[in-house]
Amino acid sequence: MGEQLDFWCILCDNINMKTVYVGMSGGVDSSVSALILKQLGYKVVGVYMKNWSQDLPGMKCPWAEDLADAKRVAVRLGIDFLVWDFEEAYREKVVEYMLDEFRKGNTPNPDIMCNQEIKFKLFYEKAMEEGADFIATGHYARTKNGILMRAVDENKDQTYFLYRISEEALEHTLFPIGGMLKPEVKKLAAENGLHNAYKKESMGVCFVGEVGMKDFLKEYIDVEPGEIREIETEKVLGYHEGAVFYTIGQRHGLYIAAEVPYYVVKKDVERNIVYVSKNLNEGHLWTKDIVLRDVIIRTQPKKQVLVRLRHRAPLIPATFDGDTLRFEREVKRPAAGQSAVLYDDEICLGGGIIV
Q: Of the residues 9, 12, 61, 114, which is catalytic?
């Protein structure tokens, strides 16, 4: 609790009648962020970012319900509330990027691109133009003097998704719940009469809601069935709906009649072939070196860094030379298109996209 109070004291240093625009998604985390800032004395303006509203066959986009939840919280808190339409930019900067990466055979992370291009660029820039001193979101992270730091709740820490944010945006960003644990956030919401205190967290595609990525991609990418082959023998074991739907290390959804599990170890997108193996030590599944592209580093790291290869994955020591990570022991090869994020203890240094 003491650490949480210290964290809130840092937020208090910024007040002096400052205005903060809070991105409110309708969920409990962003709602409590607005609540905390209001209680601390900021002039708070809630903003719902309308990024996606399209329904797909059998899949209803939840944006209207989320908007209603966010507006209801704003009324409860007595704060101004705005709706900003970023749908066109979102489709261009996030959705088209994601689809293009899948077509290349990669496995992108749209949440990371959404943070880079929408929440901490378009939203940030528009808020500053409107007269805001700060923006805030319900992410589990912390900042100090423009430095991005891991959240107190290690299980909820979201710096993996935030590593591409610019230094300028970070200097004007507040993460009010970064010093709290998730149960504390829910409790604070309930104590203050927020109706969404125990609202179920959204899963699936970040902007569509309860929709699997495969179902979403089928609406936008032309694919054809292809062979699933055993990599050691080239034997055809079954057939798939499209190689772009599969990722390295995947076990489920292969539809192979076998007594032991098989794992995806390689994809040939041009020939539309998925290669699998039942050998967990198969060479394509492991590596000591990972090459990165589109690297963003805010603070020049030491040669020795800690690396997170996916959200909630353990931090692994590695050496870093600017675009290549080298590990002392072999690690499971992450899918191309995912991100490797670098840390120095609590500080998020930046990262890059895996080749």
A: 114
Do residues 352 and 292 make contact, with C-beta atoms less than 8 angstroms apart? Answer: yes
Amino acid at the residue 3:
E
The string of DSSP codes covering 130-182 is TT-SEEE---S-EEETTEEE--S-TTT--HHHHTT--HHHHHTEE-TTTTS-H
Q: How far apart are CA 347 and CA 142, in angstroms?
A: 9
The three-point CA angle 90-142-21 to 5° equals 50
Give pLDDT tens digits for 44-59. 999 999 998 887 766 7
pLDDT digits (tens, 9 = 90+) for 225-282: 999 999 999 999 999 999 999 999 999 888 898 889 999 999 999 999 999 999 999 9
Q: Look up 61 and say whether it is catalytic.
A: no
Name, in order, each residue with C-beta under 8 angstroms of 304's C-beta and a sequence gap of 6 or more: 317, 318, 319, 320
- Is 114 among the residues known to form the active site? yes
Among the ranges given (52-66, 171-185, 244-258, 289-303), the one the predictor scored with the smallest mean pLDDT: 52-66
pLDDT in the model for residue 219: 86
C-alpha gyration radius of the chain: 22
Tokens linked to 132: 């805001």
From residue 292, how far is each of 24, 110, 271, 333 by CA, in Å?
Answer: 33, 17, 25, 13
Which one is catalytic: 9, 12, 61, 206? 206
